[in-house]
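Researcher: Next entry in the queue.
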Amino acid sequence: MLITLFLTGCQGLQFVEQTPGADPLQHEDELLESLGHHCVIPLPTEPETSTEAPTLADTSPTPPVPQDLWEVLSQSFHLPVPNDQRIRYYKDWYLNNPHHLDTVTKRAEPFLFYIYEQVHKRNMPLELVLLPFVESAFNPKAYSHRGAAGLWQITRPTGKTFGLEYLQGYDGRRDIVTSTTAALDLLEYLHDKFNGNWLHAIAAYNTGEGRVRRAIKRNRASQVSTDFWSLKLPQETRLYVPKLLAMADLVKQRHQHDLPLLEIKPQPVLTEVVVRNRVQLELIARHAGLDNQTVYTLNPGYLSGHTHANRDNKILLPHETRQTFYNNRLSDEYVKQKFIIHDIQPGDSLSELAESNNTTVARIMSANDLTGSTIFAGQQLLIPHY
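Model: Structure for this entry, 386 residues:
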């Protein structure tokens, strides 16, 4: 009952930072106002060496690994896209406003693979990776006049229900890591409450569980269909789901429409660092060899520019800077999980490295995004150190 009261949604997103150019319904803010906003890809592992004679299956060509995250997503989308007028409208609008897609995909570049990983791990529809397109145009600073904030446009009460923290100088709704966890927890909760119907769950994410449940109840009483397309819901919600499906369908057809989607490689872009002390983001940036603005952009939840003492502060850094960061002895003073950099020598194995460093093969593989146990001389690995 308590959670149901919190899940009332919020409408009327107004961006702090506006996307330039003309948008549907004359301006982007007018469209978003009318819509309302509530509140490592697992690459194939190397086949094991076999001493048996090859069979026909062994010699079959291996399908090429997609080199663009958009291709990975499009191959995995499975939510039905009906020939609905609302979907056609948004597809046409996206196609007629390539500047909007270009702006939003550039904003999405640092975060899209991270969100993909989180959705994929939960075995949720990968169309949900695109939900921040609808919610915030991938603007981490997006803020609704009704109180929703961040990429996922979560309201303060809903965020608190799903574990987000609000401290002086920190807003969990704008934290990429914690807000993504909360948003996916909420979507899983709604999916369960609506008996596995994802369109009902997505609609409830926008307008609240209660409104969708009452609409279903009315249709049942009238003995008419209770699918999303038949429900009497607020206008913003009746447009919200079609907008998501329109974007997903265009991603699938992007080559046909020459869609201006910035190529994003299907590989880790961000590394998560856990900080237990009060540390200025500028100091973390310096230890990682980064400019301050990069760290601020990746960690918009830290409004005051510093982490907090006596709690796990999850900080995102560019993946390629992690060795620089952990090689800097000064970072040892405040990170919760410490690593050493090990140069692989001939004869080294993951099991021996794990045993000699009081860790596990699984932790070493996770820290280095390894999909197999093969390592080679000259390679550098992060080894968890306790």
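Model: The longest helix spans residues 176-193.
Researcher: Noted, moving on.
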